[in-house]
Amino acid sequence: MLRTHNCGELRLTHINTSVTICGWVQRTRDIGHLIFADIRDKYGITQITAIEGTSKPEIQEQLRKLGRETVVKIIGKVSERSSKNPNIPTGDIEILVEEIEILNTSKVPPFLIEDETDGGDELRMEYRYLDLRRNPVRKNIELRHQMNRATRQFLDDLGFIDIETPVLIKSTPEGARDFVVPSRMNQGEFYALPQSPQTFKQILMVAGFDRYYQIVKCFRDEDLRADRQPEFTQIDCEMSFITQEDILNTFEGLIRHLFSQVKKYELPEVPRMTYDDAMRFYGSDKPDTRFEMKFVELNELTKGKSFLVFEEAELIVGICATNCASYTRKQIDELTDFIKRPQIGAKGLVYVRCELDGTFKSSVDKFYSSEDLQKIATKMNAKAGDLLLILSGESHKVRKQLSELRLEMGNKLGLRDKNKFAALWVLDFPLLEYSEEDNRFYAMHHPFTAPKPEDEILLQDEKRWGDIRANAYDMVINGTEVGGGSIRIYQRPLQEKMLGILGFSPEEAKAQFGFLMEAFEFGAPPHGGIAFGFDRLCSIFGGADSIRDFIAFPKNNSGRDMMIKSPSPIAQAQLDELSLNITKK
Amino acid sequence: MLRTHNCGELRLTHINTSVTICGWVQRTRDIGHLIFADIRDKYGITQITAIEGTSKPEIQEQLRKLGRETVVKIIGKVSERSSKNPNIPTGDIEILVEEIEILNTSKVPPFLIEDETDGGDELRMEYRYLDLRRNPVRKNIELRHQMNRATRQFLDDLGFIDIETPVLIKSTPEGARDFVVPSRMNQGEFYALPQSPQTFKQILMVAGFDRYYQIVKCFRDEDLRADRQPEFTQIDCEMSFITQEDILNTFEGLIRHLFSQVKKYELPEVPRMTYDDAMRFYGSDKPDTRFEMKFVELNELTKGKSFLVFEEAELIVGICATNCASYTRKQIDELTDFIKRPQIGAKGLVYVRCELDGTFKSSVDKFYSSEDLQKIATKMNAKAGDLLLILSGESHKVRKQLSELRLEMGNKLGLRDKNKFAALWVLDFPLLEYSEEDNRFYAMHHPFTAPKPEDEILLQDEKRWGDIRANAYDMVINGTEVGGGSIRIYQRPLQEKMLGILGFSPEEAKAQFGFLMEAFEFGAPPHGGIAFGFDRLCSIFGGADSIRDFIAFPKNNSGRDMMIKSPSPIAQAQLDELSLNITKK
Question: I need a surface site. Which of A348, A486, B281, B397 has the fewest CB within 10 A?
């Protein structure tokens, strides 16, 4: 090694040791008779010093001239600092420089390499290698490594084995859009990049591998909304001879292990909630359970009072915002504006202030007596000082709207602390979801999910398809779906039936998934699994909203890598070899 | 779990325990009053038994009817076998069946699910899930997992961190052909799949990550020779602030750790050899050093004796095959035929038998006296009973030919035992390799490899380019290159010079590698690394010639996945979205 020590390890015990360190110049300070520089590497920062009268004059001169981010090798003796820095682990010592070797120079970086930088997103993406030098970004990538390592440790110990599935697979029309890869050797034919290793992991169960996992890249050619990446990483798992309960226990174990190992946080037992309850109480299949503020349905107490809006509504439902009775008209107007935004689309907001003096003040005083409001307040468990926020309309829509309002109130009340963690299992998802638009059913999870055995009978009655529950489950942390899975179909007739319901002709079913259905005929064991979104999981552990800074080289919202300038045109010769033409530009 | 125990764990200590196992029916035996079945899962085989008069008659009937590969759940009591099977860990016990549940049926498999199968390659690829049930194949995949785990353990402990680099990158014309991925959002533009994360790992060093690794899929759209896969896996590593010596020591440590952990074999210190010596003594830059049989150059002793073939040859070189003097004329003719095959292309073979009585018998007796042959034998360290095999011709070609002959003799003499391991570092590779065909230099390793500092001066003299040695190294095990790497260029001017030598115009260099050269200007540390071919490494540890059975889902020689039938045509709508047309079919 060019160094004897890294920049994070020298302590008082090293005093008088001759050492060599290598790293980047973070900053220099020249106070006349003393010249300091902070030398940085991944492991820390070490102060180096030249003292007038003690150090060689040329050393002082060299030190003075060191530009930021210059790469240096420093030889010197460890010395106790007269003025210690308790904020860094090496703060007790400095190195009295005897020799400086400049290993590489640096131009002036286009933004500050500091915890708080002045670089904009695009610039940081273009000079990603400089952004990655910044502590917060570097720590995210290190956190990701720790998460990876702790995941493997947990699964390895349970006898899961890591099996690589192929990246060049086959395009399937179901679900999101595939990235495709033209085959040169098979002209006119294409591979596809996997959206998940779903069918392969099931095949591995048929092959008898019993417990599989993989931390694996997946790909989706979707229009990129903020914080979606065309390539992303999953912790992908599958088990045989299990029930749903086994999966829940095993992977609750994984998540608790990760919190314990990586965050030193002992996550309590993960509560479970049915999909129906999640929708009823939170208006969302991924409720943020760091705070309560459950929905209370008010149809009984609000109907029949001549308030036309409520009379016409399918559902009247509210939340109680603790200690918010003092909200001003302006604040309430802001909430109204919030829910009226087109993305949310509510028509209006009814509020009831539970004043500290026991009276009520509401936007519907004309229709509801004090007693009426008292009843509502009682039903909503409101105390004096609370604010009731009530929406109404079509059940499905109003729940979504109130869910947004609930989250907004959570934000306003500081109930969504990034350093607090609430995990939740959401269970019993519907198997099928009807699309009014396409006039057909889609698989809510995917076409391989098994219906609950007790609901399987409903498959025979098209009118009941929407009522069929699946053995499917999501893990939600802090209101984000971090993982989901299901018990799988493992018998050909049921799989054929399911693909039929999803609109596959028998020929299409065979062309796309024939290999899987055939595999089911050669002794497929009962099996099920789960996949966690690894980028997202890391960002939640890191307390960040964006997944981008947990990915070493993310792409921007147009799917471009700003650093390497990709995608890019290719040579005509390459196109010719692939028998392809670009039809327009 | 559907089971209380797996099929590999029951022992005498479990006698009288009520257990439930799940698995596949391996075979049944009906000997009248006793009916046996072997139930198999990943963990082992357990015998289940029904006894006439003891078991319920319907159980016997069920057991009798069980077809191979049926998936069953068996409830019963563990009992000591009267006739034990010492060959399997569960051989002391059997389960007296109380209940059988058929979890899934199986058609008759198209080939035997036994260690030795009757299935051909194509059939085994098509029904890969059945092939993977076979012990030898399953064990390869398990070995791969162990290798993966032990690699991570070693590198994690040394402070390497696993960082995922992107799969959708940019096409570069240098080197092998890229797989490309059309971008829908950036019409007419393409991503490429990485042939290696080379530039990204260097960027990570510039970013200060100090020690990086990744076990990562890479892609090459090459014409597939036997045992090459379009997607393959590398153990990819890079370190900063190091010398070549540090890399060699670190990764020799990795390989020894793998042998120790996975094979329980203590690999001795790995010898080192320069590229020049490897070529001189073995005619190969990846010599199989499980056996000696070094080349001995004989120009001095053979020239000037009127044997025209030798007179005209640039190099006369031989090997000594111990105890092969007894080879018959026919055997020697076979060797001659072997080296005359077009793939090898030698003109002829000269032999000298060192007879047990101290005389010599050779194919060139006419030209060489007994004393001449004695001198040759002495130089070649031959003993009575040995056979000398001598080739001649152009140095470069004759070395390659003799290398093939040496390996063939190694095979014949049983010196290439798959359970014996000999590792070797080959060092000091040439930086550049001249292609007569293209009339230009190519990078022997890749364009980012640094010349040896002492040879850097030769860059100024085009005539000396071929003499420049690189700080590049390969690890060879049993005659196979399992890994290779180099110290990298980390300064822009040298990188520009190198790309210029390789025929890049400044514009091309900037378009392809501008980001890397720019990164070098912002304080790039000295760095270097290595990559191991993980599939190949696994196959060597598994004692197999083919990498295919160490890959769960390999592709065939046409790049096809026979199981999922990929690649395949895609819909016109997909092509339209990508603005692509197929020009011919």
Answer: A348
